[in-house]
Amino acid sequence: MAALCTNQAAEGGKGMNSNRPDKLVPAGNVNRRKFCNRLLTTSAVMLVAANCKSPAVAATPSSYPTVRIDGAETMSPNSFLLFNYPNRWDPAILIRTADGKYYAHGQKCSHLGCSVNFNREENCLQCPCHRGAYDMKSGLALHGPPRRPLDRIFLEMRGGQLWAVGRTNDCDAFVTTAVE
Q: How many domains does one find in the chain?
């Protein structure tokens, strides 16, 4: 209570609010303008800090489970396999290219969430809802309404078995890496 004073004491007992001792004002020199400026500055810093993340931190797969993709080893070149990662509610698609490399992406279109499918003739992933298309290796949007890439799923080959080890939707982490 020592840090606070009443309007009556702050104004020397005179003025408009001198008869309202229940109104407390903080001791110190903070007016409405300073308060609003500090609030705005703090909010802007928090917003920027929340949206700025290092690509190295954003791309670390450590927060995701390691899951074996059943049937990946038996896939023929230029084929695909549907699986779920990181849990059973997240559909994903695994593609084995003609040169034998594996790529995996989330199966939900970044435009409206429709399921994308592998198109062998075009060598891309297509969304049937609005005819959007994605590169099958990088997951980047080729044409149509989608502007963001598909979620990327990180893969590792361990003892002849293919494992999903992480997932990202960070555009900076979309360096094309394939597993043979």
A: 2
- Residue 2 is predicted with a pLDDT of 45
Residue recorded with tokens 């992406």? 105
Check: pTM over 0.90? Answer yes or no.
Answer: no
Same domain, 13 and 102: no
Q: How far apart are CA 72 and CA 69, in angstroms?
A: 6
Task: Give the length of the chain.
Answer: 180
Of 126, 71, 72, the closest CA to residue 102 belongs to 72
Residue 179 tokens, joined: 């597993």
CATH code for position 118: 2.102.10.10
Pair 81, 12 in one domain: no
Low-confidence ranges of the chain (pLDDT < 70): 1-28, 50-62, 170-180
> Looking at the structure, do residues 18 and 83 belong to the same domain, yes or no?
no
Ordered DSSP codes for 47-105: HHHHH---HHHHT-GGGS--EE-TTGGGPPSSEEEEEE-SSTTSEEEEEE-TTS-EEEE
